[in-house]
Amino acid sequence: MSFRQGFRVDVLEGARIAVFSLRANRMRTVLTTLGIGIGVATLLAIVGIIQGLNASFEKQLATLGANTVFISKYPWMVKGNWWLYRNRKNFTLEQVAQLRAQADFITAISPAVMRTSDVAHGALQVSNVRINGVWSDYLSIGNYEVVSGRFVTRADEEVNRAVTVLGADVAASLFPSISPLGQTVRIDGRPFQVVGTLGRKGKVVAENMDMSVFMPFKTFNSHFGKGRPMQIAIAVADAGQMAKVEDQLVGIMRRVRATPPGQPDDFNVNRTDSLAATYEQLTGALYAVATGVGLITLLVGGIGIMNIMLVSVRERTREIGVRRALGARQRTIVLQFLMEASSVSAVGGLLGTTVGLGTAKLVSLVTPLAADVRPGTVVGGVAFAALVGLLFGIWPAARAAKLDPVEALRYE
């Protein structure tokens, strides 16, 4: 018999004996399986939620556009002294004009100011709506879609028209059964004519983009005052050149704001990819902690498997002696115990994977947290659990294989 044929026979025989042994000790098998299953379930539930959050965040950032840049007094992620940013000088329309004239890669630019207020129509009212004052170019910069009517225009800006464009949620709340076009809404008590509605955008970093209205920048200032800080929204031609774009923007802004040499920038260039990098740092730490907790739980389960297998070796010493006396090789004994340990662990891994990913999916259904169940995660969970059983079964298997046949036969 060749080595390959002998190995195949050993595997089949080891599998048969392993199954028989597991069935003969059902309670022990169930408890050992639960130990591994709990570890895998803990790990994969957290992994599923984190993967879902990552996918959701990537989708949200895509709505902002990969080729957009926002220049403002504040960074999107404020670190350190908030008053340092608060005391920076506000931007001016003259600086926006100089930036548009000097930058050679800008395809669209718009100042943007914002406040929150109530928007009402008749007896219906929506609270905490983002009121945005922008130029017409903001439509393409923000990746918005007009579904009815139009967006604000340069003509609206020039003549200071009291017109507004409604976000999807605002339009649905104030006009549930009629078209908003041509209707009058009251923003902070002031009348505005609705000239358009926008398509649904969803949330970006927990901010509901559909709970917004837009009006001409000049109209916003005349109705609500000019004291609010402005940001500059920019769309560029090539998203792959963002590093060069940022360098040029920084140079132009320092020049037009007369920032002295050697002094730090008194503005921030905010990019979607930098926000994504910050998010990955935050979730990376969470992912590492979650993985550590899951691995510790699996380690405890693996130690449990080793303990149970050592007990099994002691209980079956005489059986091992009989098999060795009848010609069983050491590798046959090793394969038998390894297959027994990995089988228990794999079943626990399958159970834990099902429970863990099911828990992650349930959490996503009843809470705002997202979950992403990927096929690779399922396969990886079962395979990793089986590997844990295999590793922790090596010592008991080797101990069983090295038993002296004569002493094993005399064991009571």
UniProtKB/TrEMBL annotation:
It is found in: Cell membrane. Its main location: membrane. Residues 29-250 form the MacB-like periplasmic core domain. It is a multi-pass membrane protein. Residues 293-405 form the ABC3 transporter permease C-terminal domain. The chain crosses the membrane at residues 30-50, 285-312, 333-357, 377-395. Keywords: Cell membrane, Membrane, Transmembrane, Transmembrane helix. InterPro entries: ABC3_permease_C, MacB_PCD, Macrolide_Exporter_MacB. GO terms for molecular function: transmembrane transporter activity. One of its GO terms (cellular component) is plasma membrane. Pfam families: FtsX, MacB_PCD. It comes from the Bacteria. PANTHER family: ABC TRANSPORTER PERMEASE YTRF, MEMBRANE COMPONENT OF TRANSPORTER-RELATED. Belongs to the ABC-4 integral membrane protein family. This is Putative ABC transporter permease. It comes from Corallococcus coralloides.
